[in-house]
Amino acid sequence: MATALEKARRDPDSMKARILKVARRVFGEYGYHGTTTRMIAREVGIDISTLYYHWGEKGDLYTAVVLDINEDLRGRLREVEKVIHDLPLFNRMEISIDMMTDYLFDYPEISNLILFRYFGKTRHDHTLDLQVPEFVSDIARSMNLSDDRKHVSVEAKMQVLAMMNAIHNFISGEGFFRPMLDLEREAYIARVKETLRFILIPAFAGKDQKEKTRNTGGGPTGRGLPH
Predict the structure, then answer these.
(1) Can you tell me whether residue 224 is helix, strand or coil?
(2) Is 181 exposed, middle or buried (0-12, 13-18, 19+ CB in 10 A)?
(3) Which of 71, 74, 191, 204 is spaced 20 to 30 Å from 106 by Cα?
(4) What stretches of 66-138 adopt beta strand conformation (E)?
(5) Domain total for the chain?
(6) Would residue 22 count as lying in a domain?
(7) Number of H helices and number of E strands within the chain?
């Protein structure tokens, strides 16, 4: 039997899907504890009993939101990996930054909820989480930081987390950063991408080049080091 989430994802025009879409945005804006089911029902334009009929209690709806975001992120990462497969690291980084930044700016509740889950002092359910470890391993493998997603080094995980957190912070912090910089949204997004490329590509591509140089015994000019 299909779950409520499966039904909502299967029929984007259904009442279940409408409630889920609003719940993502409201939970993303106010967090689990700052959100009430009445807030969500009011935003959808329904009474509270209709929300309970489709999704049950607040915790059930929040669980569905987290699982829905997990599925969306997993799908987007697969799309990115198909595009960047077998490209040089510099190109993989550039394309990944552009694609993921565009996606997350379209769905800022994802970054907001991830950061809420990181830093919230009281959490809804310790057994439920955005699948950050799994995503970190997938990203590390797609960037050739690891040959096997099941055996990713701590160093590689930290590097991926640094990249992910940089992106999430710029997106979640848009309401603070953009007025401070006096930028329109389109200009802000372009500057975020530019800044992420400036910070991340040399860090990763430079490391990759150093590894190649060390493995081939070549110096800066590509020639072997003197003995």
Answers:
(1) strand
(2) exposed
(3) 204
(4) none
(5) 1
(6) no
(7) 11, 0
The tens digit of pLDDT for each residue in 96-116 reads 899 999 999 999 999 998 888
Judge whether 177 lies within some domain. yes
Is residue 150 a contact partner of residue 66, using CB atoms and an 8 Å limit? no
**pTM, full prediction:** 0.80
H-helix segments, 107-184: 108-119, 132-142, 154-172, 174-181
Q: Average pLDDT per run of 10 along the chain, which is 227 residues long?
A: 93 97 95 94 97 95 92 88 86 91 94 81 51 71 73 84 90 95 97 94 69 50 37
Q: Is residue 37 part of a domain?
A: no
38 three-class SS: helix
| In contact, 97 and 197? CB cutoff 8 Å | yes
Domain of 113, in residue numbers: 68-214
All residues at 6 or more sequence positions from 103 whose CB lies less than 8 Å from its CB, including other chains = 76
Token pair, residue 167, equals 């992106």
> Is 42 inside a domain boundary?
no
